[in-house]
Amino acid sequence: MIVKNSTQQLGEWSSKENPTELNIDLYSNAIVENSILHGISRKLKTIFEKDQDILREIAESEIHTDLSNVKKIYGFKDNSYFSKKTQRWIGHVIKIEGKKFFAHLDDITNSGTNEVGEFDTSEVSPGDLELLEKGAIFYWSIGDTIINGQLKKESLIRFKRSINLSTVEVDRIKDRADDLLKKISWE
Amino acid sequence: MILSENRQINELILIFVGKFNPAIISPYWLVYHKLIREEEGKNAKVEVIHNELVKFEIDWLKIQVSKDRFEFKSTQESYFEPLKDLAVSIFKILNQTPLESFGINHLRHYTLDTAKEYYEFGNKLAPLAPWKKTMKDPKVLSLELLDLKENGSRRVRIQPSDSLKNTQNAFMININDHFETDLPNPQKNDKLISFLIESWASSFAFADEIESHIEGVLKS
């Protein structure tokens, strides 16, 4: 989608030159070539046709050089939730005793320091309790957050979620075995 | 002045370039693979789920996927590590998805106290005196530097903040830490994911170094 009324002569942003760079520069220069939507802007208009307000916004933003509307619809929304300053650690659970657990803490913010910390299981989010076990890894952070303009102090524990490569490998092997089994004709 | 104390927003955007099937990626798919909490999936705000574009967000993360680009974004430092874990896990599950390259983008937004300080900052980055011979009142709009490295490149761009548009004297440092490899698929995928895991901490260290350097420029 290209905003046509800009009087700036700009080189076309080339995804080949730096494809992993977020092209915010184009937003601020009032020319948008959004490779994501280049081929499907019409399809999106069809989807949005049910909501005439959004469609009107799209039409207006295509001729205006102010891209704040365009960015809202096609790009990421304006920040309303962001960190101010945080202190962060990676924890490794070493012991669980009743309603408490103990962990080695590696300081990410000021690397080189590590300590042992004691935590209450009530500090763990319900959705993460199943992950609490000896050897589990979690991220702990303390700091300020701004939520829609309101400053909030928070302490946050989040357990690491990652695919166990061996589990994925096992599934792949199972699938492959199933495929092979299907090809065998038993007599 | 300690520049990090003037930092208002710290954004992390991870961008992968490759060939994707956007429709696979949904909050429900992430919950199914236990990559996010069930509650997060249930409360996700989904904007588009389409064969060519998927866009949704949960509390701490925004995901946008097209046929050739996969973007993860967070503005909450507490979730930068989980964002990396999520990306690694997704591409381990989708190990048949061909990746071409990826970039770790650090976007840090700052405010300076006075307009004079803001003007002088630009002047120190790119001296304006030579331009005053031909221009009336030149000001630095943006500065971009490129550095090549073994597995890619690094771009540093300093420009007015696009997230603090209504705030005076605001600028941003946009660092693109780009990774690529000449290996053919399927080794390429494994190599790129290894780069992501191994280079994570050093990418942040580099962003911190740039911040310190800018602080030095401001103090000079």
Characterization of the model:
The complex is a heterodimer of chains A (187) and B (220). The N and C termini of chain A lie far apart (62 Å). Chain A has a five-stranded antiparallel beta sheet with strand order 3-2-1-4-5, with no helix packed on it. Chain A is 26% helix and 28% strand. Chain A has 187 residues and is an alpha+beta fold. Chain A is globular and about 40 Å long. With 220 residues, chain B is an alpha+beta fold. Chain B is globular, with a radius of gyration of 20 Å. The chains are: A alpha+beta (187), B alpha+beta (220). Chains A and B meet through helix 1, helix 2, strand 1, strand 4 and strand 5 of A and strand 1, helix 2, strand 4, strand 5 and helix 3 of B.
Number of strands of chain A: 5
| Largest sheet geometry of chain A | 5 strands, antiparallel
Name the strands of the widest sheet of chain A in spatial order: 3-2-1-4-5
Order of helices and strands of chain A: HHHHEEEEEH
Strand order of the largest sheet of chain B: 2-3-4-5-1-6-9-8-7
* Mass-distribution shape of chain B: globular
Give the helix tally of chain A: 5
Rounded to an integer in angstroms, the radius of gyration calculated over CA atoms of chain A is 25 Å
Distance from N terminus to C terminus of chain A (CA atoms, Å) equals 62 Å
Describe how the helices and strands are arranged.
The complex is a heterodimer of chains A (187) and B (220).
Chain A: H1 24-28, H2 41-48, H3 52-61, H4 68-74, E1 81-97, E2 100-107, E3 114-120, E4 137-147, E5 150-159, H5 165-183
Antiparallel strand pairs in A: 1-2, 1-4, 2-3, 4-5
Helix pairs in contact in A: 3-4
Chain B: E1 7-18, H1 27-32, H2 38-42, E2 45-49, E3 53-58, E4 61-66, E5 69-74, H3 80-93, E6 99-111, H4 115-125, E7 143-149, E8 152-160, E9 170-180, H5 187-219
Antiparallel strand pairs in B: 1-5, 1-6, 2-3, 3-4, 4-5, 6-9, 7-8, 8-9
